[in-house]
Structures are given as C-alpha cells and as structure tokens.
Amino acid sequence: MRIVAGAITTLRRIVDLTLIGLIGVVLFGLILGKIVPLTGHQTIIIGGGSMEPTIGLGAAVVITPAQPAELRTGDVVSLLVGPNRTTFTHRIVDIVPRPDGLWIRTKGDANADPDPTLVPATAVVGRVDWQIPWAGFLLAFLSLPIGVIFVLGLGATLVAITWLLESLEGDSEPATDSVARHGSSGEPIAARPRAFGPTLSTPLASGATTMAAFGAVARPTVPEQLARSRANRVRRNRWLSSSPDRSPKAD
C-alpha cells in the first residue's frame, strides 16, 4: 500500500511540475509577443539560417530602434528591403557615406559573400540586443488559433489529472493511519518497540488478536516471550483484582 501511495505522490508531483512549466512557457511567450513591444522594443522571429551559428533558425530576437548615425560596423540589424518590405536580419560589414545619406553593406554570418547590394541606413528597423533560441517557434505556435486551443486543452487535462491523483492520494492515507489512531478496546497490553521486519500478532487474555498495522515488530527471542507472558499475567491479575465484578470466583 505504501508503494502505491508513493507512486501516486511521485506522479502527482511530476504532473504539477509539468503544469507549472506549461504556465511558465505560455507567460514567457506572452511577454515576448505582447509586453516587449510596449517597452519600445520589437520582437522578430528568425525564419532562416543565414546568421547561424550566432542566431539560429527559429530564434526570437529583440531589437531596439537605432538612428543611422548610431550604426557601427559589426552590428546585427534587422532591415526592411524590397518592394514587399521583407524583413531580414544580417550583420553590417561596411558603412558607405553618400551624398544622399549613409548606406550599409550587410552579410549573413553563414554566407560566404556579402549581400549583393547596398541598403540605405534608413531601412534599418533596429539593432539586435539579444536573441532567444527556439522562442520564435513558440511565438509562431501561440499566434495560431489551433496553438491556443492546444495549450488550453493541455492545461485543462493536466489540471484534471492533478485533481484525480490528489483524490487517489487522499483515499490511500486513511487506510494507513486509521489503525494507528484507534487503539484496541479492552484490557491493556504491553507496549512493544516498532521496527522493520515481519509483522507479528500478540495474543490477548480474551483470546482476541491485534496486528501491528503498516509497521513491523521485531521477532522476540524465547526468553523475551516468556518474560512478556509473565508480565502479562501479572498485569491481568492486577486488572482483574482492581474490578470487584471481574474478580475470579470460586467454583
């Protein structure tokens, strides 16, 4: 019984930790996607591997707006280029002053050659401050309706499993403690030390038997058994003599 109760407790703790982890992951995704933009920064999902190993595929980067004059060679920046205003993140390898302003040349860390064309510095959305590997997959998943439904369903399932395990754990505890809490009624018996080992039964004067519940009693030696028997007879005679209606009657 103790093994079953211990297994239930361990499983409940695992489910609790899983539920806490799920809540933490969802909160982290909400902070990146909703709270960070409120601070003046922006979170961008990296959809390619051109910046590996510095920034891997599926990472999320947090960028800070930067003016053209603040840009330096070696900065990793996110830019909007092309007629479709596509966002990509590369490293600045050269800054070229022109009459119409500053232009930059960029290159992906995983690419052998720089990007073929110069880009105006005004196209820079911001400088990358820090990046979180794999967090972009989480943001993309939570942005889909099916992702939100999956997270809600998984959380509800974990809560139901936790409630069920707590119920089973509560049902297993009274069986362990009930015998220990309720002593046997009738004449007193000698107290014996509890130890791990086989469970023994102790004969009483009335012929009833009590079992040590969910514990074990060390097996006494023969001299100890004889001494306890004599002590039990002495206590029984004292107990009978203390009650006039229980005193032995002559035949």
Task: Give an account of the 3D structure.
This protein has helices spanning 2-35, 135-142, 145-181, 222-242; strands at residues 42-45, 60-64, 76-81, 86-98, 101-107, 119-120, 124-132, 201-203, 209-211. The chain has 251 residues and is of the alpha+beta class. It has 3 domains: 2-26 and 146-178; 43-132, Umud Fragment, subunit A (Ribbon), CATH 2.10.109.10; 186-251, no CATH class. The relative contact order is 0.12. The strands form 2 sheets. It has a 7-stranded antiparallel β-sheet, covered by helices on one side. The chain is rod-shaped. Helix 1 (2-35) packs across helix 2 (135-142) and helix 1 (2-35) runs antiparallel to helix 3 (145-181). It has 4 helices and 9 strands, in the order H-E-E-E-E-E-E-E-H-H-E-E-H. Residues 178-216 have low confidence and may be disordered.
Task: Give the CA-based shape.
Answer: rod-shaped
- Using the coordinates shown, work out and report the CATH topology of the largest domain: Umud Fragment, subunit A
Structural class: alpha+beta
At the first level of CATH, the class of the largest domain is Mainly Beta
